[in-house]
Backbone:
């Protein structure tokens, strides 16, 4: 009786979805929805997660986003369920379903990832259809193996990096519950400010000291000229370093002799 109001075609007909198009094709005998009791339970879980600042992964056979799956894979009351998710922005990280055998992926306006893996029963021989979802503090990582998603809805294949959705609620913190914690935070803040102001001055002083140390300690004097050769006059003989000149001997004293090596004389030089 419930389906007859939305789908007049008998459930045992050859095509139970005959005459239906678009999102209306979800009203088939193999479909389903989330009843009031389940919906109330889901809402309570989301409230608790919001109060404790937690993230939620929802696993359901059917999807709740039309862009993420074929119409016949949608929940009967997907609008109502999706509205419940929107009431808790940033809480639900992903909705994972499996009713669409072709597989697909989409992300709604609040950043929730809707993942519809391919059905393994539709794989060819030696073909796989499975994946691994890793959850980190700030993101999720999806690694799918085997069948690609439906090319008509997801032509670029499976995504890999899934950033966590961001909520608009400011979470209260009790880190200032006592005055000591507040004073400690203020002290750390002022220390950071002082470090920011003093660090450039210290770097400037250090660079100046390095430049002074690198400068030469004394100015080198130019090389002095070589001292002139020492000359000495002994009597009438002019002697220079390594050179001896024999003076002219007076004819009156022929017997005078001059020692050319020492510059000494053996007689009287005029």
Residues:
């Amino acid at each position: 009786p419930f389906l007859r109001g939305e789908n007049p075609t008998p459930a045992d007909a050859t095509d139970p979805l005959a005459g239906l198009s678009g999102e209306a094709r979800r009203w088939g005998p193999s479909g389903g929805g989330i009843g009031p009791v389940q919906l109330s339970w889901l809402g309570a879980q989301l409230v608790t997660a919001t109060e404790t600042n937690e993230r939620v992964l929802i696993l359901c056979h059917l999807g709740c986003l039309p862009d993420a799956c074929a119409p016949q894979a949608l929940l009967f009351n997907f609008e109502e369920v999706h509205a419940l998710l929107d009431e808790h922005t940033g809480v639900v990280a992903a909705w994972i379903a499996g009713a669409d055998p072709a597989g697909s992926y989409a992300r709604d306006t609040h950043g929730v990832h809707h993942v519809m893996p391919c059905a393994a029963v539709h794989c060819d021989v030696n073909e796989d259809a499975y994946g691994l979802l890793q959850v980190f503090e700030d993101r999720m990582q999806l690694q799918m193996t085997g069948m690609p998603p439906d090319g008509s809805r997801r032509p670029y294949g499976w995504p890999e990096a899934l950033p966590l959705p961001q909520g608009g609620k400011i979470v209260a913190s009790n880190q200032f519950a006592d005055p000591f914690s507040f004073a400690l935070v203020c002290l750390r803040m002022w220390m950071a400010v002082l470090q920011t102001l003093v660090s450039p001055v210290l770097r400037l002083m250090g660079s100046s000291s390095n430049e002074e140390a690198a400068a030469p300690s004394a100015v080198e004097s130019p090389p002095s000229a070589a001292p002139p050769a020492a000359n000495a006059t002994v009597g009438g003989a002019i002697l220079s370093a390594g050179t001896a000149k024999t003076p002219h001997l007076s004819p009156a004293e022929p017997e005078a002799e001059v020692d050319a090596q020492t510059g000494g004389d053996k007689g009287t030089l005029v």
Observations:
- DSSP finds three helices and twelve strands in the chain.
- The radius of gyration is 51 Å.
